[in-house]
Request: fold
Amino acid sequence: MRQVCIVIFMLAGFAALAQTPSPKGASRAGEPVFLDPAVLTAGGQRSEVRGQGTGAGDQNSKLENQKSPALPATNTPTTSLTNLSGYVPDDKYKLRVGDKVSLQILEDRDLPRGLVVADSGELDVPYVGRVAASDKTCKQLADELKARLEKDYYYRATVIIALDVANRFLGRIYVWGQVRSQGPIDIAVNENLTAGKAILRAGGFGDFANKKRVKVIRSGGTNGAPKQNFELNMVDILEKGKTERDMVLQPEDFIIVPSRLINF
Reply:
């Protein structure tokens, strides 16, 4: 009887075990397996999640890390797109007071700036200030500005200076005394203005002019040269035709025509 009871209990246990349901989500043999595509990598393997992120979060973080690099700052050493093969800087003509030039710094990407050589012989250059320009060629001045700009302001400066309008006057002389029209007279470029011509341009002699003792006074200038005085006999030069005795004037010369002591 005891053995029969043991057999019955064993059969009941096997029956209960057979009816116990399998764990939730576990697949049975022969059934298809469904996987979430969000957690798969491109190679078919399950992606690795770190921290609290998901597979989509990792993709977003990768997109953020692959942003385009920042543009280079202004005036960094980049390749210039400007073709300068057609520009030849002037190394012959020397700038003078009143000349109009155009200045352009290619790295600024601005249009050329018009400048005028002041009476002091200087140009007012952006960033640098006043720079001596008189008696320098455009090439010399551009090279000087390039060095000064690259020293303090630019990594590389491409400076272009071109002459726009040359001053057609070289300077002025001044006529005073016994002439019809006293005052300054302009000397044109390449003009050989003599004392006799200047007096004629001033309207000729006055009624009481001492034509035989016309004075020309030439200042020494800034190079330390002494002042010079010349005396000309305009009767010989203008009335007798001895033009070889006339003298060519220079800017800032003074012509003084004195009066006769006895007027009759």
